[in-house]
Amino acid sequence: MQAEPSASGGPVALAGLVLCGGRSSRMGVDKALIEVGGQPLVLRAADILARVADPVLLATGQPGRLGALGYQEIGDERPDAGPLGGIVAGLAAAPHDLLAVLAVDLPFASGPLFVLLARLSANHDAVVPLSGRGTEPLHAVYARRALPRLRAALRDGVWSMRRVLGGLRVREVEEPEWRAADPSGRFAWNLNRREDLALVRREAPQGPSREPR
Question: What's the pTM value of the predicted model, to 2 decimals?
Fold first, then answer.
């Protein structure tokens, strides 16, 4: 497949990475397998990325943990290091210089926003949108040039992604800039607790369940 064109007219050379999460202790079940809109969240996220990125990789922590999903899985660069371990492994495995990173618990992620972020990536290690919560490092685009700094943070135990961004050349994208790509502004809606699930399911159109590829 070929990724959707950027706003400037050319294709975006972009790989995708779904961060599939861990124990989901606050939810009580594995979030990646919760169904929203007729799909497990992991496949919903992978399908969103597949519209703009090729290939799409799954950072499952332990390949096979979620069953056969039809996408290439990768193990974390360092176990139990949170999203950073998956991002480092994804950048190392991706065939392109740019990687669209998406947490599995963002069910309204925006493919067009990822295209915008990729288009703004020149000379930056990461391109990160800003929401009302601040930076959104798990709906962002990272460049391969960031890999040495990310590996150093991993080695040094600096695993908070917002702290990690402090050591990178980051292009922040504020709402007036990203709103054209995602008019709904829902890309950063986060599914953390059971109370969130009813709201998300109300907002997600229900489609037929999709079998793994």
Answer: 0.87
